[in-house]
Design a protein that fits this description.
Blueprint (H helix, E strand, L loop, with lengths): L3 E7 L16 E2 L2 E2 H10 L4 E8 L17 E4 L6 H11 L9 E4 L9 H11 L6 E6 L4 E4 L5 E5 L5 E10 H11 L7 H7 L5 E4 L12 H11 L2
Parallel strand pairs: 1-4, 1-6, 4-5, 7-11
Antiparallel strand pairs: 2-3, 6-10, 7-10, 8-9
């Protein structure tokens, strides 16, 4: 029976946060962002293991982030890009997982993930080999701009979704996709899978699962998380 393993690339510095501390270590509701993420996966019975990929020169990692954790390990194999960090993590897991096991890649800066979303993803993707990702249908009108910031086109939002994480794929499929297309710089795992000819399933996520990117995002995600407690 296939198992579920979480891989969290956490080697970036999040320069748009305008903080000397990498955003995954910033405080949110009294805990570092990354700690919120770890706790959600640690408490999910379906998850067999959690691997966090940090930068080789990470001076901000604190062992206390894993206090009380039973499933989580940290490996200092972070790459220059997200895709490289994920591939390095997959290589490190080679002897720990089965080829058909599921890998759930999740952003370290998405602390709003919860068991409802995780179960929806796992149940919807099911036994298929296409994999799937959490995502939200776009609600706003989209505009394309020129270099001067003037509108050049209105883009219909029908059938457009905003990708979230986790992104869930079979170990061997994901490893092959990233290994094949690493030099093409995929922006997420789903894009590499698309280039391999797969059609990943879109599974409804939540606004609460937003990625912390800018300073104001901390307050927004904190409010969303508190509203659902």
């Amino acid at each position: 029976m296939s198992q579920y393993h979480v891989l969290i690339p956490s080697a970036g510095r999040g320069t748009r946060m305008q903080s000397a501390l990498p955003k995954q270590y910033l405080s949110l509701l009294g805990e570092p962002l990354l700690r919120h993420v770890i706790q959600q996966f640690e408490s999910c019975e379906d998850i067999a293991s959690i691997t966090i990929v940090i930068a080789t020169d990470d001076q901000d990692w604190q062992p206390s982030l894993l206090d009380g954790c039973q499933k989580t390990q940290v490996i200092p194999y972070g790459g220059k890009t997200r895709a490289e960090s994920v591939l390095n993590g997959l290589n490190a897991l080679r002897d720990m997982v089965q080829p058909a096991d599921w890998i759930l890649v999740h952003d370290a800066a998405r602390p709003g993930i919860d068991h409802v979303m995780l179960q929806r993803l796992i149940n919807t993707v099911g036994a298929s080999d296409t994999g799937g990702i959490l995502a939200l249908p776009l609600a706003d009108t989209l505009k394309r701009a020129d270099e001067q910031g003037h509108i050049t086109e209105t883009i219909p939002r029908e059938h457009l979704w905003q990708a979230q994480t986790p992104q869930m794929f079979r170990y061997t499929d994901l490893h092959n996709a990233l290994n094949t297309y690493l030099a093409c710089h995929p922006t997420d795992e789903a894009q590499a899978m698309e280039w391999m000819g797969k059609r990943p399933k879109l599974v409804l996520g939540s606004l609460k699962n937003m990625k912390v990117t800018y300073p104001d995002d901390l307050q927004v995600v904190a409010a969303l998380m508190q509203s659902t407690r």
